[in-house]
Inverse folding.
């Protein structure tokens, strides 16, 4: 199957002559359509930098990123905006909903930026809301909703445009375990029912255990890769823990 | 250590609040300019020049009073701006406290900062004011056609002292305010300030619709009252009207955004196009916290527009009036019994001013005042009328360089004066309707062709409407018919000797009074000359213009600065929202447009309501100004519009640029 995301020999250096920080050092990976891929690593391993580069928010020092057949590292800023709004969906740790808009309007925003007709917008928003089970808080403002509802609203916003790739940065980072479980269930549903391709950065082994495949990064380089295959989630979780221990991330990152 | 921290903080906030600093400097500058007027050379030159009128004194006294008011307005602006800056720095101040600084030390840092800002603004403002004052002097000189013999730079220590004193008090207030704010805040609140000020208050749409309706109703009621009652009746109802206007404005702004939101939401395809939904929601959430300041800004703008428009209007009016009332170089007026017109010239000559040699041409005329009695009273109503013979009238016309007019022997004509209309109208109407006039045993019919509308002589007060009658009437006039007898000696100075003769005329004033007192018992008299009238008019003009500009500019700048500060601080608050938009793939151009739209709404909603207010207000003010003469509405409107566009537009553009820089910053 044709990969939807290809990252090849990616490098991202910070700083100037004398003190160069190699956030990402020759990293390659590829994600096929419909996959649910996790990226794990200790703090400072470069996982967020990788995600920012893929998200076209940051520009890599070297290497290429290809999303849906388009080499995004060669695009100009205006074209990048257009690319982001048509091909990518984002979910952040602190949900990043606009607090002045209701949940419905937050989900509708990416569509209205694309100037879709109003009828289509309403219909699509409701379908996504049903899928993420947030239909009852459509007219609420973010501060009236729980953290889990906010995060699911953000997820709905990310997929409402049917993007080629959904990027999630620590989506469960600010949630309690129950809300996190609910959100991850919905991620699974999205992946299964809408065949959404999801690339998720996390340092939480439980969250990662929902993925099909996990890429471990250490010091800006690929460390190892785990594929869930036919394992139960529990067995996969145990394997993840083993790798995390091997990675030697500080103990706070394990669980 | 503290000094270093304070100076660094000032330097940083300088960049964020350029507009605030500019406004502060501008405030100091304007304050200095008007408070140093007294010592400006042009004022001194004018004060020396004047003869019997002291108009520069009136200007200076009024400037003193108004400066107190202006200082209060500026103090409010500075406190408000300071409150904004402090709110944005809560987290930073919380960090100081967290690191173990005492509240006293934090207050000391803020004190030093305010001191730095204040000294800087004062210094730059005074330098700007020094140059602006020279410009104003030059401008005034050109208004008065004063020849600039030597252009001297004047540095007014009194103006500096006053400016420093007023601003020192303002900045002391700011320091006090800061200290109190810091001591009353809890550390946790300071650190979490960002999370707290994002709270949204929701209001139901029905409530906002009702509020809007009540607001508009209040405004309409206030407008109607103003137009019906006029501007100058200050009683309980007047204050009620002001209160209704202010309350109406408040309700209007409080409910408008909710109503607009509802309106746009009902049109789905408009609401969900581009960033429309975001912009409207932003506006709505901002106005929920901003409606109070928007109301204040709207009312300040109303004052600014009103004051500027009226002062410019009065200016044109006064100028027209002065041209109209000074047809000849000088006029001596005497009201006394037992004189003849010829005596006036003799009296002047005895006093040291010989009309034969000192005047190029002159004439002395008689103007008796009759009381209407008998049939006339039934026809005309109760009134006194001024009459003059045709030949006297024609001799006055000759002085203006006009040819004689003719009148049939059984007719009367009319020379319209410049009295208030309620005195003049019955006479004009009577003449227009052709009412007959009986004097002695003869009856005269109105001559429909004979109506002279120019001034007959030069006068500092209004000119009475006079009936012009054939010469034989004057001869037949019995002394008992005449209630009062007025005399005028009007003349023009020889060319090139105006200044010398003017001085000579005023020098003979006391002797003329004495001579007159010896000849007759009771009398009243005055001298009116073109030069004095001109200076007097210019004095009024300058007074109105200065006060209008002073207040107008201060109000305008204050309101624009409040809006600019508010918008810039909101742009900074909105930064995370724009980051989200950027990640969602909203192009820079679209984000900029959203910023501009919000600033535009914030600037032009108060302005447009203020314009509506002031159109009504100026219409009412016109009624007052009309008593001075006709207000030149077109030119005053254009001038006001230009001033508003310049000042307000500049602030708008600067705010847009600043906000764009902030939003693009990351």
């Amino acid at each position: 199957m044709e990969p939807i995301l290809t990252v090849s020999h990616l490098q991202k250096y910070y700083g100037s002559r004398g003190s160069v920080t190699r956030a990402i050092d020759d990293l390659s990976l590829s994600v096929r359509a419909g996959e649910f891929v996790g990226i794990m690593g200790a703090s400072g391993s470069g996982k967020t930098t990788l995600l920012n580069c893929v998200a076209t928010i940051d520009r890599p020092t070297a290497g290429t990123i290809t999303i849906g057949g388009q080499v995004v590292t060669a695009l100009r800023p205006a074209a990048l905006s257009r690319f982001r709004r048509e091909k990518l969906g984002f979910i952040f740790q602190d949900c990043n909903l606009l607090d002045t808009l209701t949940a419905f309007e937050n989900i509708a925003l990416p569509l209205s930026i694309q100037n879709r007709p109003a009828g289509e917008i309403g219909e699509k928003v409701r379908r996504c809301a049903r899928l993420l089970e947030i239909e009852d808080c459509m007219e609420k403002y973010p501060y009236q909703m729980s953290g889990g509802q906010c995060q699911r609203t953000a997820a709905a916003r990310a997929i409402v445009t049917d993007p080629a790739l959904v990027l999630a940065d620590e989506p469960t980072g600010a949630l309690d375990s129950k809300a996190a479980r609910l959100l991850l269930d919905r991620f699974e549903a999205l992946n299964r029912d809408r065949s959404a391709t999801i690339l998720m950065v996390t340092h939480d082994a439980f969250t990662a255990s929902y993925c099909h495949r996990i890429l471990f990064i250490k010091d800006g380089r690929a460390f190892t890769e785990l594929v869930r295959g036919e394992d139960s989630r529990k067995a996969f979780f145990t394997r993840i823990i083993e790798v995390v221990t091997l990675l030697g991330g500080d103990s706070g990152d394990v669980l | 250590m503290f000094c270093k921290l304070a100076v660094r903080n000032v330097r940083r906030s300088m960049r964020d609040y350029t507009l605030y600093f500019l406004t502060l400097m501008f405030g100091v500058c304007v304050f200095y300019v008007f408070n140093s007027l007294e010592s400006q050379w042009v004022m001194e030159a004018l004060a020396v020049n004047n003869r019997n009128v002291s108009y520069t004194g009136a200007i200076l006294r009024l400037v003193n009073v108004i400066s107190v008011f202006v200082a209060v307005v500026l103090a409010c602006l500075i406190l408000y701006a300071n409150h904004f800056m402090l709110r944005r720095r809560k987290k930073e101040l919380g960090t100081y406290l967290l690191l173990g600084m005492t509240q006293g030390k934090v207050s000391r840092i803020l004190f030093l900062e305010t001191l730095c800002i204040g000294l800087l603004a004062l210094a730059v403002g005074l330098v700007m004011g020094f140059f602006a004052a020279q410009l104003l002097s030059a401008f005034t000189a050109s208004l008065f056609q004063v020849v600039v013999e030597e252009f001297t730079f004047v540095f007014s220590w009194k103006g500096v002292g006053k400016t420093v004193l007023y601003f020192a008090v303002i900045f002391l207030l700011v320091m006090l305010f800061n200290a109190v704010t810091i001591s009353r805040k809890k550390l946790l609140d300071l650190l979490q300030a960002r999370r707290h000020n994002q709270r949204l208050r929701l209001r139901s749409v029905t409530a906002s619709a009702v509020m809007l309706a009540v607001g508009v109703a209040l405004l309409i009621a206030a407008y109607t009252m103003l137009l019906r009652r006029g501007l100058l009746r200050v009683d309980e109802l007047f204050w009620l009207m002001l209160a209704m206007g202010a309350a109406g404005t408040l309700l209007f702004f409080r409910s408008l955004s909710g109503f607009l939101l509802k309106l746009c939401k009902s049109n789905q395809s408009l609401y969900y196009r581009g960033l429309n939904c975001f912009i409207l929601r932003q506006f709505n959430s901002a106005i929920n916290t901003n409606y109070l300041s928007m109301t204040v800004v709207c009312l300040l703008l109303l004052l600014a527009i009103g004051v500027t428009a009226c002062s410019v209007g009065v200016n044109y009016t006064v100028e027209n009036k002065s041209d109209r009332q000074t047809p000849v170089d000088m006029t001596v007026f005497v009201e006394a019994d037992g004189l003849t017109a010829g005596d006036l010239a003799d009296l002047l000559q005895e006093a040291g001013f010989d009309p034969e040699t000192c005047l190029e041409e002159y004439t002395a005329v008689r103007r008796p005042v009759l009381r209407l009695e008998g049939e006339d009273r039934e026809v005309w109503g109760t009134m006194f009328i001024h009459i003059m013979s045709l030949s006297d009238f024609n001799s006055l016309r000759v002085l203006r360089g006009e040819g004689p007019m003719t009148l049939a022997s059984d007719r009367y004509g009319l020379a319209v004066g410049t009295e208030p209309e309620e005195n003049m109208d019955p006479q004009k109407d009577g003449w227009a309707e052709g009412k007959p006039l009986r004097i002695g045993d003869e009856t005269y019919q109105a001559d429909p062709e004979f109506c002279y509308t120019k001034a007959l002589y030069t006068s500092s007060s209004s000119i009475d409407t006079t009936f012009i009658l054939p010469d034989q009437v004057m001869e037949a006039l019995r002394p008992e018919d005449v209630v009062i007898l007025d005399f005028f000696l009007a003349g023009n100075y020889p060319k090139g000797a105006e200044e010398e003769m003017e001085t000579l005329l005023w020098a003979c004033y006391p002797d003329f009074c004495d001579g007159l007192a010896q000849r007759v018992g009771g009398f009243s008299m005055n001298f009116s000359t073109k030069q004095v009238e001109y200076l007097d008019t210019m004095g009024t003009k300058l007074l109105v213009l200065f006060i209008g500009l002073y207040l107008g500019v201060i109000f305008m700048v204050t309101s624009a600065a409040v809006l600019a500060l508010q918008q810039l601080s909101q742009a900074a608050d909105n930064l995370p929202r724009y980051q989200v938009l950027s990640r969602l793939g909203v192009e820079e151009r679209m984000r900029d447009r959203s910023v501009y739209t919000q600033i535009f709404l914030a600037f032009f909603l108060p302005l447009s309501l203020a314009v509506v207010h002031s159109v009504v207000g100026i219409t009412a003010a016109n009624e007052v100004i009309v008593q001075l003469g006709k207000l030149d509405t077109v030119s005053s409107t254009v001038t006001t519009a230009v001033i508003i566009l310049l000042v307000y537009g500049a602030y708008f553009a600067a705010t847009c640029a600043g906000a764009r820089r902030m939003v693009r910053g990351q």
Observations:
- The two ends of chain A are 34 Å apart (CA to CA).
- Chain A touches chain B at residues 55, 57, 77-78, 81-86, 88, 90, 96-101, 105, 108-113, 115-119, 121-122, 141, 143, 157 (CB under 8 Å).
- Residues 3-253 of chain A form a domain with the Rossmann fold fold (CATH 3.40.50.300).
